[in-house]
Amino acid sequence: MNTTRGGTVYYDGTCPFCLGAIRRFTGLLASRNFRAVPYRIDQPIPGEMAVVDKDGTRYGGAEAIIYLAGQFWWARPFALLGKVPVINQLLHRIYQRIAAARHCKSGACHVEPDRRYWPLVLIIFPVFVMPFMPAFLFMWVLAATVFLACKLCVLPRKMTLYKKVQFLFCWPGMNPQPFMVARKTKALGREWLMAGAKVFIGFLLFFQPFALLESTTLPLRIALFLAGYVLMLHSGLFDLMALFWRGRGVRVQKVMNRPLAALRLRELWTRWNHAFSEWAEHVTYRPLLRWFGPGVALYGTFFISGLLHDLVMSLPAKGGWGLPTLYFLIQALGIHVEESRWGGWMRGRLWTIIVALVPLPLLVHQPFMENILMPFFDLITGNTAL
């Protein structure tokens, strides 16, 4: 019996039944150094619980429960029994039935949002206004169009008009399911305080450096701007929106789920921009997984992400073509290496930092900085007019 302690438990964060189970067993799992992480696109078999131990070995579904049972002396008889072939098959069938009906326990059996691809055609329309506006303004128009098109891809047909408006225009996430089942939760005061602090600090980073650091190098100004932007918008304002919706019974998840806490590269991209990971999981990862397997699904999802970033960043900048796509393919390769048998030391927090940050100039490339960010800097500091 494998009694290795420590690892990560991945679960369905959109399932109230699953959330309740995780809350119930969090202390027990923590006593064996297991931490619970909401499951998104980082699993090769979506729709089931998974456990990844400290050596990178993955257990899914009923096998995950059997593995966890083996970590506690009082549950090891169950784990041993679960290894018997006939009982093992029975446990798998029972688990599959429970997993398939997990959302029915909260009164919402339909978990899959609709999937359609025709809204992506909307992306071409901003191109017609490109010659008539500054590059950085065109970038925001294009980004807003891509954002709306992606939301329309997963918009459920059986959703009321009022709920559709809320989901499309009043929340940055890409998962409509929380808007279809109301379960009120109470936000802690410190959560509101932390979100407000992020907005304030991000605002200072976004605006203050331009007055104080006019003579500093461009890379430093870019770094301050991007840090302020992410902290103010994605980690601050979007957190406030999440707390607002939770108070109204819509159990949305935060867009940024503590990415600095990620210990692995795959985990980083699950925690970073959760809104896009929700969309990528449903629209790209799951279809590719079903048709071609986990390898193609991994590279295909990051390739699509790269193309969208190329569209929003390289097209307005009129340069740097393919560099954002290359950056995201490097991330997929890093995950592939991290999870391979020959990965060796190439896993953990150091590997995550190296792979995510070293090729970052491919994503925030020179044409983007010169043709988008610098004109925007000049505008907000009063050096030019719109």
Please give a structural write-up:
It is built from 15 helices and four strands. With 386 residues, the chain is mainly α. It has a four-stranded mixed β-sheet. α5 (135-153) runs antiparallel to α11 (294-317) and α11 packs antiparallel against α12. The longest helix has 30 residues, at 218-247. The chain is globular and about 70 Å long. It starts with 6 loop residues before the first strand and ends in a 6-residue tail after the last helix.
What labels describe this entry?
four-stranded mixed sheet, mainly alpha, 15 helices, 4 strands, 386 residues
Structural class: mainly alpha
Count of DSSP H/I helices? 15
Mean pLDDT: 83
Q: Which sheet architecture does the biggest sheet show?
A: 4 strands, mixed
Terminus-to-terminus distance: 68 Å
Low-confidence runs: 40-45
Assess the beta-strand content as a share of residues: under 5%
Give the oligomeric state: single chain
Across the major sheet, the strand order is: 2-1-3-4
Helix content: 55-70%
For the secondary structure, the number of strands is 4
Order of helices and strands: EHEEEHHHHHHHHHHHHHH
The global form is globular
> What Rg do the Cα atoms give?
22 Å
